[in-house]
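Supplementary notes (optional reading)

For those who missed the lab, this is the record we used. Protein: C-type cytochrome, methanol metabolism-related. Length: 174 residues.
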Amino acid sequence: MPIRMTLLAVTAGLALVASLGSAYADDKAAAAVASDENGKYADKDGNPTFKIQEDGTVDWYTYSGFRRFNSDCFVCHGADGAGSSFAPALANSLKTMTYADFLSIVAEGRKNLSAGKENVMPAFGNNKNVYCYMDDLYVYLRARAVGDLPRGRPAKHEDKPPAAKEAEASCMGG
């Protein structure tokens, strides 16, 4: 599966580079939109980010991330990424997690052993419903983490850009 192998190689490399830097802290200023490529927004460092208009309309990718999160992630990580007894609050975790670390953990999974308790994040590198939408998940959770996106389903969203349709068809095999 070439997409999966490429994804794992890229995430491993990004995680290595990210781990060489200093402590990471995300906030509204760091998450600010610096570029827009066909409705996909990026911050000044080129990391995916969200755009929420004054009337509450979210970009397509944030909305898609909400949908994917509620399909595959909320069972463990709680509604709106608020956490549960099974898994941490991702709305908090993303405040100190780099994009590269996020990709690596989602693709490869993670095991934490502390205070006699074992927590396991399964690897989703083989799940197309997750890995085809990792940027979407990231921007949704980033919007929740820096406080710009309230809890619940976004009331309004931008239309799905043609680039998103093409990427989805390519990744999902459609």
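If you only remember one thing from this example: The chain has eight helices and five strands.
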